[in-house]
Predict the structure of UspA domain-containing protein.
Amino acid sequence: MTVRIEQYGMFSTVLVPTDDSAGADATIGHAIKLGDTYGAAVHALYVVDTGSGPIDLSNDERASVRERSEGHGREATIRVTDRAEEHGIDAAREVREGVPYREILSYVADNDVDIVVMGTHGRTGADRVRLGSTTERVITRADVPVLSVRRPEDGEPTPAAAVSYDRIVVPTDGSDHAERAAETALDLAEKYDAEIYAVYVVDPTTYDLEDAPRSIIGLLEEGGRNATEAIAELARDRGLDVQTNVRRGLPAEVLLGYASTVDADLVAMGTRGRAVGSGRLLGSTTARVVRRSTVPVLTVS
């Protein structure tokens, strides 16, 4: 699978699916930032979920509920396009009916969308952050990058002027998925003159490091150095500042801590999906990072 990158601009169409919640506005600033930087159009999409709601409604009641939902959808999409047009960005909007993730993916295909900007739902307690089922399904099935933005608890929208991508963490495990994510991250970094932080995590739960010979540990860490240095070379070729790091620990925990340590503005990583029947699975490390990250996460399939 290839990542679509235009010769003169990585993104020409940005899609913002919205659900009319106050927290959804957190994604708009990021979409406008990308639209302004790349000269890209911003599209807003609201999906009236025909599979949700009470099942014991009369036909008239169903029609009334659907009409109200469509009204909310129009208001939500207008809010996105108005903000985009205030920044001189071309904008479009649409309200559809159906299963949300399917309609989002259909819209991506129908309109040659280059990136989807979606929100994740913050949650306290043992679950920390739960990734919405629609967002997760889009991430795992989309053939274009997806930028997941944590929705603030206070629901306050993030202005485009406050959005920055100056420090980008790029996790790698040397896989093709990680390489594709790194290429996308480097294109983004070049546009924003960002610093790249390439990191590799040796997972002790996969390799029993307590009992492993030192030579094995050395080989694993050498592989990590090679993987991060490969990204560093590509970054230097683009004139970007880059740092590399090899660490040990539980990958998601280490990556989240590392992103916090370097004050990252963005984490860019592969989904590491694998085919299962007609769908895909989101890699456990990627899922945990997207669920818990306080900074946006760019996932590339």
Q: What stands out?
A: DSSP finds eight helices and 13 strands in the chain.
